[in-house]
Amino acid sequence: MKECLTVNEQENYVLVSIDSKIYPLDVIYTAAYVFLEKAYLILDGDPKKEVLVKLIAKRKASREELDILGKEFLNELINYGFHKKQSEQNKQTKQIILQRALLTNLGEEIKSEEYLDEFEDLEGMEEDLEDDSEAMDDPEGIAIPWEEKYGNKKKKNSKR
Amino acid sequence: MVIKKRKIQSDRVKREVCFLLNKEFYNLEEIEEALKDFKGVCEGKIEEGQGKRIKILLKSKDLSILETLEYEFCNYSLGLMKNNRCI
User: Fold this and answer.
1) pLDDT at position A159, please?
2) Would you kindly state where each structural domain of chain B is located, as residue ranges?
3) How far B31 CA lies from chain A's nearest CA (Å)?
């Protein structure tokens, strides 16, 4: 594996080499933004191949400290890379929830057929989600609503 | 892994620092905005036409900040890029 950290103790910096095919540029920018307080950052290289991030310590740092700084930056890249991937995966679900919430507050008069046509696909997806929840095992009876489980008993008690 | 030499010169007598930034990562608009915001501490000039690089000349009002001025400017430009793009 190619070494991606180069520490220069004399000039007080660590150079991080990033493959832009693994980490997109927006992830690199976000990680760099987090590090603005810790170090001075300079971006260089080729955004299509290899991005070089020069992290210059704000105070005189030892070799180990610079190495840690570089590694922390790499961790931050993974963090935001993962965050980006997750938000891309959850994008459709978020959209469904948001549109459902907006639709609930719109009122009956706006819910015309034309308007609802736009949500046909979403409804299909919601049904899929419901099917998934039905298929889920519930041996402890956790998913049973309180009213269903204890509602009758309460009524009996109140009668007494 | 080679990083091209960025700093062209730093003149303590003239209180000037001149450096290059990669156009692929730093936008001219954000650099101009950063220069405006840095007017309180330095005067600046942008020179284009160095291939993929933007040449920036900063003349500090205070000698004590000359060493870090370039880096603070780069950090500030990067911050502006992040904010403006809402990445």
Assistant:
1) 52
2) 7-85
3) 13
CATH code for the part of the protein at A5-89: 3.30.70.60
Question: Do the beta carbons of residue A15 and residue A54 sit within 8 Å?
Answer: yes
Q: Record the pTM.
A: 0.70
Q: What is the mean pLDDT of each run of 10 residues along chain B (87 residues)?
A: 60 82 89 91 81 88 86 93 74
Contact pairs from chain A to chain B, CB under 8 Å: 54
CB of A61 closer than 8 Å to CB of A12 = yes
Q: Which residues in chain B (12-71) have CB-CB distances under 8 A to chain A? A: 21-22, 24-26, 68, 71
Checking if the pLDDT of A70 tops 60, the result is: yes
Q: What's the CA gap between A103 and A120, in Å, rounded?
A: 13
Task: Give the ipTM.
Answer: 0.85
Q: Show me where the domains of chain A are located.
A: 5-89, 91-135
pLDDT digits (tens, 9 = 90+) for A13-32: 999 999 989 999 989 999 99
CATH code of domain B7-85: 3.30.70
Q: Estimate the crossing angle of helix B66-85 against helix B28-37, to 10 degrees.
A: 120
Q: Where are the beta strands (DSSP E) in B4-83?
A: 7-11, 16-22, 42-50, 53-60
User: Which one of A8, A33, A44 makes the best mutation probe of the B interface by having the most chain B beta carbons within 10 Å?
Assistant: A44
C-alpha A87/C-alpha A89 separation (Å) is: 5
Asked whether the beta carbons of residue B78 and residue A47 sit closer than 8 angstroms, the reply is no
